[in-house]
Amino acid sequence: VEKRYLFTPGPTPVPPEVLAAMAEPILHHRGADFRSVYERVLGGLKEVVCTSDDVLVFSSSGSGAMESAVLNLATPGDRVAVVSHGSFGERWIAICERHGLDVQAIRYAWGEKPNADEVGSAVRESGVDLVFCQQSDTSTGVVSDVQAIRGALGDATLVVDAVSSLGAVPLETEAWGIDVVVSGSQKALMLPPGLAFASVSERTWSRVTPRTFYFDWPATRKAQHKLDAAFTPAVSLLRGLDVAIALLLDEGLAAAFDRHLRLGRAARAGVKAMGLELFSPDDDSSAVVTAIHSPDGIDSDDLLKHLRTRHGVTLAPGQGALKGKIFRIGHIGWFDVFDIGVALSAIELSLTELGAEIERGVATAAAFEAYEQPVSTLP
Amino acid sequence: VEKRYLFTPGPTPVPPEVLAAMAEPILHHRGADFRSVYERVLGGLKEVVCTSDDVLVFSSSGSGAMESAVLNLATPGDRVAVVSHGSFGERWIAICERHGLDVQAIRYAWGEKPNADEVGSAVRESGVDLVFCQQSDTSTGVVSDVQAIRGALGDATLVVDAVSSLGAVPLETEAWGIDVVVSGSQKALMLPPGLAFASVSERTWSRVTPRTFYFDWPATRKAQHKLDAAFTPAVSLLRGLDVAIALLLDEGLAAAFDRHLRLGRAARAGVKAMGLELFSPDDDSSAVVTAIHSPDGIDSDDLLKHLRTRHGVTLAPGQGALKGKIFRIGHIGWFDVFDIGVALSAIELSLTELGAEIERGVATAAAFEAYEQPVSTLP
Q1: Of B31, B233, B309, which is closest to A314 when you measure between CB atoms?
Q2: Under 8 Å between Cβ of B104 and B125
Q3: Which helix (H) or strand (E) holds B329?
Q4: What are B268-272's contacts with CB under 8 Å, separation 24+?
Q5: What gap in Å lies between CA B97 and CA B103, rounded to an integer?
Q6: Is residue B64 within 8 angstroms of chain A, CB to CB?
Q7: Does B214 touch chain A (CB under 8 A)?
Q8: What are the pLDDT digits (tens) for B178-230?
């Protein structure tokens, strides 16, 4: 028997009660049994997204919801701005360019946090009225301050990719005036991949012109208002989502955010105690993913392979130019401090086996100590 | 305890071993465990689609795969032809028109079978080189002769929607020279909704220009050739698909087609014995869905509601102009003759309770008798 541990920033582990719900017999999507599930899900999503506006549901991965925003909000030739500081910022740019938009890329080094004032100046100077950014770029672990970015943009419509951050870090969609939030099921929502979401603010609807059939926002909204779906929805995933949302709201969003923040602290404390260097920012914003430099002389892909084959532990690799250089621990969703302990122990063991010089026997103690500190007492 | 019976043409019932596979812990889509599942699925899909060409996999409903064909094969202003004889033919037209194509609609009355010679003449006269049609239009139960349509088209590229027919009726994709087959998971493949497929013939690739990011065929093919996916795939559904394909191939495609054909016969025999009038064609092609006129004075939506609330049996309603007039029994996928017996018994009971004059006590016997006849001995 080899136990397996999934510590990637998506897909993430799914609680057994969610898995069990997905294994129940299939319900017809227009039957009364399903409609009560669907009604709870549509209401629960609004709570999770912190908005009273519609949260549209698509059967797709998060990238489908990202493309839906481009195809419902822009037409070819439009000038738009993208704030990019990682792999998923580059994805916004690729989607916009695929559809003939004129993209003003506001780029930061991967691992750097975007500066809201700079972004605001760039957008206001260029007169662009549609801006895309990430709340969390999973490729680097950077969580940006989308409230500040929103505040700096004036009247421009802001679309935030919260695929990996929704449910993990605060996102006051309506209170902060964020126009569109896109997200996915396979991160902090504790579900398998296959569902994606887009919340759309009231003022945004006036600029919506769908240039897509499958991701048509008005058709999706119209169907949802009748507790229907524009296309046969992934009913088993939606039953799982019903259970997962209940778990999340039972814990409470504030408690979940607190837990993720302390998981990030625990991961960073353990990593540093081992003598490793962090790639993701060493502050409380890094509550989703902890990205770590591989020690000198050790290719991070070799480390990941060793972790997986020798110890059954799956972490995530570096992407793009960071391939082989960093590795990442996702700590989102159905995740607790004991998981951090397992991840750190496996890293410690594997690096030792691969011949790296690291401090042994201190990482998990440092992690548990960091986790125990209440949030309010630390700077 | 009220047992529930799902006899709709999608979503369809899912076998317990498939449900159990989907309830297993989440695998990372780039890990070795998942890649072996994925390799079997990609190979198995080729067997099911009867082609040696790539079968592209999307996390979406079948309509997503339909739109993918339009967005990869046509550019705005292109003239295309659509053969429409039901709700899903109209969907092809709507997708094509959404993307600015010039659509030549070759329409037949709902319930009528398209005539291959007529379709061929219309296409050849107009010089259109891209044609969309349905193998099975779920809204009417009509299964068209796509081999004959293919033969009548000359060199034009043919895209066949086999969402509800793949695995239920013969479709010799490569042997018949069908260029593109799109399908979905929630019909004869015995899976929940959430996955869609597009097989693309070798000669078709030269005309592919993706005008979509999420449904980009070349990017999807490139990823699949590396046993990767362009976007995080619906891993739990793919694990279920692995089991479902094994079940289907263990039965054997020929045996599955034989079973569906006899299920259609059984449904029609029972319906007629009761004294009801068929809407779908009364021949062996109607192996997917049996559509039935509601008796005089009974709104079919009332019948369906009665079936569902009183007896726990879900059938499908009439769509469009057929709403209230017909009802439909889907008999695809994980379905046997005892299910036909339950469906007929529940219809008989409900119609009696609603005051219709029907022949009682004969439908199931007629159905079982029809089912027992070997396929080859009947005309």
Answers
A1: B31
A2: no
A3: strand B326-330
A4: B268/B370, B269/B366, B269/B367, B269/B369, B269/B370, B270/B340, B270/B344, B270/B363, B270/B364, B270/B366, B270/B367, B270/B370, B271/B344, B271/B347, B271/B363, B272/B366
A5: 7
A6: yes
A7: yes
A8: 999 999 999 999 999 999 999 999 999 999 999 999 999 999 999 999 999 99
